């Protein structure tokens, strides 16, 4: 079990604090951004599919009208 004498020792992590807390921060940042990116990509994909379906419907209507 690891014991620290002070909060500053805990943050320093035996000299590896920059790497430990930097890694932790990067992970938190990525996990916060991921749902935002998924929602944005989902919206873009749905819009693209709707546009494609409208174009296909128009093309089918033109072909049946001829």
TrEMBL record:
Record keywords, A-Z: Cell inner membrane, Cell membrane, Cytochrome c-type biogenesis, Membrane, Transmembrane, Transmembrane helix, Transport
GO biological process: cytochrome c biosynthetic process; cytochrome complex assembly; heme transport
Spans traversing the lipid bilayer: 18-39
Domain of life of the native organism: Bacteria
Chief site of localization: membrane
GO cellular component, one term: plasma membrane
Bilayer topology term: Single-pass membrane protein
Function: Required for the export of heme to the periplasm for the biogenesis of c-type cytochromes.
Name the UniProt record assigns to this protein: Heme exporter protein D
Organism: Dechloromonas denitrificans
Species classification: Bacteria, Pseudomonadati, Pseudomonadota, Betaproteobacteria, Rhodocyclales
């Amino acid at each position: 079990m690891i014991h620290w004498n002070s909060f500053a020792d805990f943050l320093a992590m035996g000299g590896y604090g920059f790497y430990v807390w930097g890694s932790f921060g990067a992970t938190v940042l990525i996990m916060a951004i991921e749902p935002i990116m998924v929602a944005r990509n989902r919206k873009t994909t749905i819009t693209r599919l709707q546009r494609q379906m409208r174009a296909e419907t128009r093309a089918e209507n033109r072909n049946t009208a001829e």
